[in-house]
Design a protein that fits this description.
Length: 323
C-alpha cells in the first residue's frame, strides 16, 4: 500500500484532473440562469462586472467562464489560500489562453493580467490572482461592497456554510449574485460492490468525518451542505433564483477514463483512506484491503464513482435581514 500512499497526493494535479469532471457535472440550467442575469445587468449597468471567486484554485472557473462566454467585460479577482494554486494558475492560464484563441498579457501591477479575444465571445477580462485566506480578504474594509458576483466552487461544503456566508456577504453590493457550485449532498457511490455491508459502513463513517471536521477550533464541513443551503441562504438574506443537481459521474469507456480522471479517482480513494485510516470503527487490515481493491479497480477501468451535489444561483435580497 505504500505506493498508493505517496503517489496520489498532489492537490494541484487533482484540481487539474477534476476540471473535466466538473465540466460535465455543473448544472446547465443554473449556468444559463446566471448568464441570463448577467446579460440583463449588462444592458443597464454603466460599469464592468466585478467578480470575486473565493477558493479559486488554479483558475478552472476563469477558463470555463471565458470558454463559454459568461461575460464580455469584467474585473475578476481570484482568491485562494494556497500559494501553490496561485502559482499554478499564473503558469497554466497563459497556456490555456493561447490554445483557445485568447490573448493574455501581464498588467501593470503584480499578479494582474488582461485576457482578450475569444472569437465570437469577444471577452475583455482584467484578472487579479491573490494568495490569501478568503475570510481575511473579506474582512478588509476596502473590499466591502465592491463585487457584483461571488463565485464559490466546491467550497462551501468544506467550511461552516452559515458562518462563511455571513463573513463573505460584506464583499457584495446590493442585489449582487452568488454562484455556488458543487456543494456535496450526502451520497458517495462506488461500484462495483466489494462488500455491501462494509462499503456502506465506510460511506457512513466517511460522511461523519465531514460532519465532525474542525479547523482552527471551528466546525468546518457538512455532508449534506447541498440541501441545507436552501435554509442557510434564506437566513443570510439571499434569494435562491435557481438550483439543480451537479453530480460527479466518473466511469471508463472503451479507451479508459477520460483525460486524467483516473488520477482524480485515485485521489478520492486516498482521501477516504486518509480520513478513516485510524478510525476505531474499522478493522485496519480489512480497510487497507478495501483501499487496495478500489485502486486496482481503477487500474483495470472498472470503478464507477458518483457523488451527489447541488449548484445554486442566489441574489442578495435587501428586504431580508442577515442573521
Amino acid at each position: 500500500m505504500a505506493a498508493h500512499e505517496t503517489s496520489y497526493t498532489s492537490f494541484t494535479r487533482y484540481l487539474a484532473a477534476k476540471k473535466s469532471v466538473d465540466d460535465r457535472a455543473l448544472n446547465q440550467h443554473v449556468w444559463d440562469s446566471l448568464q441570463q442575469c448577467l446579460h440583463e445587468r449588462d444592458e443597464r449597468a454603466q460599469s464592468p462586472l466585478a467578480v470575486v471567486e473565493i477558493g479559486g484554485g488554479t483558475g478552472a472557473m476563469v477558463e470555463r467562464a471565458l470558454a463559454r462566454g459568461l461575460f464580455s467585460t469584467a474585473h475578476y479577482t481570484l482568491v485562494d489560500a494556497m500559494p501553490d494554486n496561485i502559482a499554478a494558475a499564473s503558469e497554466q492560464l497563459p497556456l490555456w489562453a493561447a490554445a483557445h484563441g485568447f490573448h493574455m498579457e501581464e498588467g501593470a501591477e503584480p499578479a494582474t493580467y488582461r485576457i482578450t479575444g475569444g472569437g465570437a465571445w469577444r471577452s475583455d477580462l482584467t484578472l487579479r490572482l491573490q494568495a490569501a485566506d478568503c475570510f481575511d480578504f473579506a474582512a478588509q474594509p476596502a473590499r466591502h461592497h465592491q463585487y457584483d458576483l461571488l463565485i464559490a466552487h466546491a467550497f462551501l461544503d468544506l467550511v461552516d456554510a452559515p458562518r462563511a456566508l455571513q463573513r463573505l456577504r460584506p464583499l457584495l453590493r446590493p442585489h449582487a449574485l452568488l454562484y455556488l457550485t458543487i456543494n456535496f449532498d450526502g451520497a458517495t457511490l462506488l461500484e462495483p460492490v466489494v462488500d455491501a455491508a462494509f462499503d456502506a459502513l465506510i460511506e457512513t463513517l466517511y460522511h461523519e468525518t465531514m460532519d465532525r471536521r474542525v479547523v482552527n477550533g471551528q466546525p468546518s464541513g457538512d455532508s449534506r451542505t447541498g440541501r441545507h443551503l436552501f435554509a442557510h441562504l434564506r437566513r443570510a438574506g439571499v434569494e435562491v433564483l435557481d438550483a439543480g443537481s451537479s453530480d460527479w459521474v466518473v466511469f471508463a469507456g472503451s479507451r479508459g477514463y477520460p483525460l486524467d480522471e483516473a488520477y482524480f479517482l485515485h485521489f478520492i480513494i486516498e482521501t477516504i483512506h486518509g480520513a478513516l485510516r485510524h478510525h476505531a470503527g474499522l478493522d485496519p487490515e480489512r480497510f487497507v484491503a478495501w483501499v487496495q481493491t478500489r485502486h486496482a479497480q481503477i487500474e483495470r477501468g472498472e470503478l464507477v464513482y458518483i457523488a451527489h451535489q447541488l449548484d445554486f444561483l442566489g441574489r442578495i435580497d435587501m428586504d431580508l435581514r442577515l442573521l
